[in-house]
Amino acid sequence: MEEVDIDFRSETEFGEYGDLLYQLLSDIYGIRVLTVCSYMLQVIPSAEEYPCLPLDRVQHLTLRTVLHVHEFHGISFFLNSCPHLEILTIDIAPARIFPERGTNLALKDHEFLSSYRLRIVYECVSKSLKKVEIKGFKGEMNEIVVINYLLCYGLVLDTLSIVLSKEKGPNGMDMEEWYRKNAQKLLKFKRASKSLRILIN
Questions:
Q1: pLDDT higher at 158 or 16
Q2: What is Dmax (Cα atoms) for the chain?
Q3: What is the secondary structure of the chain as a DSSP string?
Q4: pLDDT at residue number 113
Q5: What share of the chain has pLDDT > 70, as a percent?
Q6: Which candidate, 10, 14, 11, 71, places its Cα nearest to that of 38?
Q7: How far is residue 27's CA from residue 1's CA, in Å, rounded to a whole number?
Q8: Sign of CA dihedral 144, 146, 147, 149
């Protein structure tokens, strides 16, 4: 098996399924391309074996996510679990957010949000991640903090591709120009990689 797409978007309850999802991921060890949904990102931190699972062969990871703070620990789980990741696709799309989270992990100290100088830097981010693609970009704060983290620590990152959201504003207002202005602000962000290209589409 080379590619797996795990999608639980139809789930309406959080449930105590962290360990089951962890086992599911254990059973598909060896895949190269993995796609996971927001539900997985929110529930996996409640697994007893959190914070990682060796997914050593995954080279392309797609996250279908709102980039809500309740998904941040799940995103960290997959970054930590995929040490040889080369391509990260973040597909921003509506999803059900479960306020209970099922975990006592603190959000204020999470590496995307923390103001501490000493942050967790995942092996894939500093050593193998070459391309990041953000689909559905608007420039909201939750998007910015994740992108900023990847830019600050992505030592070998060569491409950040931003695909603007097509979502309309109030009363059907066209928001493309606003989203593009937000994306262009990324050009001024501090970056670890000297060869990084930022593409805005």
A1: 158
A2: 47
A3: --EEEE--TT--S--S-HHHHHHHHHHTTT-SEEEE-HHHHHHGGGSTTTT----TT--EEEEEE---GGGHHHHHHHHHH-TT--EEEEEE------TTTT----STTSTTT---SS----HHHHHT--EEEEEEE---HHHHHHHHHHHHH-TT--EEEEEE-----GGG---HHHHHHHHHGGGGS--S-TT-EEEE-
A4: 79
A5: 93
A6: 71
A7: 11
A8: positive
- Look at residue 103 in the predicted model and tell me its pLDDT: 66
Q: Which pLDDT tens digit goes with each residue over 113-159?
A: 766 665 789 999 999 999 999 999 999 999 999 999 999 999 999 99
What is the predicted pLDDT for the residue at 197?
96
Are 114 and 157 spatial neighbours (Cβ–Cβ below 8 Å)? no
